[in-house]
Every structure is written in C-alpha cells, then in structure tokens.
Amino acid sequence: MKYIVTGGAGFIGSNLVDILIEEGHQVDVIDNFSTGEKENCNNKAKYFELDISDDSNFNQLKDIVSGSNGVFHLAALPRVQESIDNPIHFEKNNTLSTINILKACSDSKVKRLVYSASSSAYGNAINLPLKEDGPVDPISPYAMQKYYGEVACRMFANVYGLETVSLRYFNVYGERQSLEGAYALVMCVFARQRLNDQPLTIRGDGEQRRDFTHVKDIARANILAMNSNKVGQGEVINIGNGENKSVNQIAKMIGGPTKHIEPVIEPRETLADNSKAKELLGWSPSVIIEDWVPKYKEDLGI
User: Fold this and answer.
1) What are phi and psi of 61, to 5 degrees?
2) Which pTM was predicted?
3) pLDDT tens digits for 214-259?
4) Beta-carbon neighbour count of residue 253 at 10 Å?
5) Which one from 3, 115, 142, 173 is the annotated catalytic residue?
C-alpha cells in the first residue's frame, strides 16, 4: 500500500512513518519542517517539503496524494498556550491545511483520510470520563481549530464521499518528544529542568490531571483507523489511555525539587472513555507511563 503522512517529520508523525515502513508500505511524507525535524526522517520514505496551508501549493499537493491508498493528516501547529499568543498564525496553519488536504484527497479519489484531532476540544468538561458524544467547549484557538477539522472531515464524508475518521488524542508522550521550547509537554519541561539542575516548575497546585497516551499507541490507532471496515463516515474516536495522572505525580516520577508558579489557561482534567476505540478499531493502550519513565530518564542520563 502507498500512504501519505502530513506532518511526518514531527513527533507523532515520524513514529507513524517508521511503523508503516516496518510493515512494508510505501510512504510519502509532506512536511514544511516548521516543527518537524530532519533527524526524524526515515530514509526509506520520500519527503516533500511543502506548506499545505498555502493555496498556491494546492496543485502540487493534489499530485502528491494522487494514487495513494490513504492519507494520515497529522500536520498542525500544536500547543494551546502558543495558539493563544498567536491565534491568526495558528488559524492559517491548522484550519487551511486541513481543508486543503481534504479537497486534494477528494479531487484525487483517495479512499480514506485519518485526521489527528485533539481532546482539547472538550475544554473544561465536568463529566468524566470524556465521551465522544458529550459536549465540546474549546477554550483556546488551537482547540477550536482542531475541532473545526473534525467538522470538516464529517462534512467531506457526507458531501464529497471521502471516507474520514477523526482521532482525538489525549496528551501524547514518548520517543522523540522535544525537550525544547516554552511550550514543551510538561514531562519534557521537567526533564529539561532536571538536566539543568533546576527545580521542576509546577503551574498552580499541580493537581491538573492528564490522560497520558504513548506515541506508539497513537500510531497504532491511526493504522487501525485506516483499515477498519467499521469507520469512514466522519466518526470521532477518543484515543486515550483511560487513566490519568496529576502533574504532581509526573514530577515525582521525574524526581527532584519542585516549585509552584502561576497557572495558565488549560483544562483542569482530561480522562478518555476509550470504549469506542475498542469497539470500532479493536484498539487498547499497551504502554504504561510508570514503566516507560524510568527508561526515559536512563536514556537522558537523569
């Protein structure tokens, strides 16, 4: 099979590319390397450096996806706080890129697109665990843009006949997660601070809870979604571990002194109901964070 992965040089995308290559598929990657890294590239995949949010690149985008069996759309500018600081920039990248890739797939008669959605669409939900048919309440530009992508995918399935499925990721961690930047994952921030002999900075009281899900489990969910005969009509599916940890617990796993700083706008708690993923995809998580962190620390030399 031939697959296209947008954002395939990024954290999640590159892990997905590696698994697809290992399974013997032909993989073409589209990435503008705004957040992706050259060192994440798999030498058995073909790479196109292209900004798919730019309309002037649409014909080239359509040529690339033509003849493929399916598209995994992971390209996006991530991070909630940064989207609050730069909403217009994020809107252009996250919204237009999704519409362009959907239209390119539709025009090129690609069978299915699997979209990387986000649990941030739920906002500050009260009723946990979070279920796909529950209310959505995006509280940041990023969350709003990722939710719009789900709506667009469902519309393209209904109007244009393009098979789509949206996977709402919950707090992805794992190999190739970046330690750099002000908006790195909390685990990465803690690891960087520990390496620099600094106290771990905990925002607010540290009792914010997150459903941490390993990147290999996320990648596996994408492949199952591409192949399942139970989806394709714009379904939205939670991909989360089904168990959450507090920021304080993550700090304890990393180890070292801590200090509390001002909170930021973010959901208080995330926790996935992953029963739909089990039913429609045959997916369940396989990596436990408590088992993974010791090896992570060992690899970093903490």
Assistant:
1) -60, -45
2) 0.95
3) 999 999 999 999 999 999 999 999 999 999 999 999 999 999 999 9
4) 17
5) 142
**Amino acid (one-letter) located at 135:** P
The question of whether 173 is a catalytic residue gets the answer no
Which structure tokens are listed for 129? 């665990």
What domains lie within the chain, and their CATH numbers? Answer: 2-172+213-240+273-281 (3.40.50.720), 178-210+244-271+287-300 (3.90.25.10)
pLDDT of res. 182? 55
Indicate the average pLDDT of the chain. Answer: 96
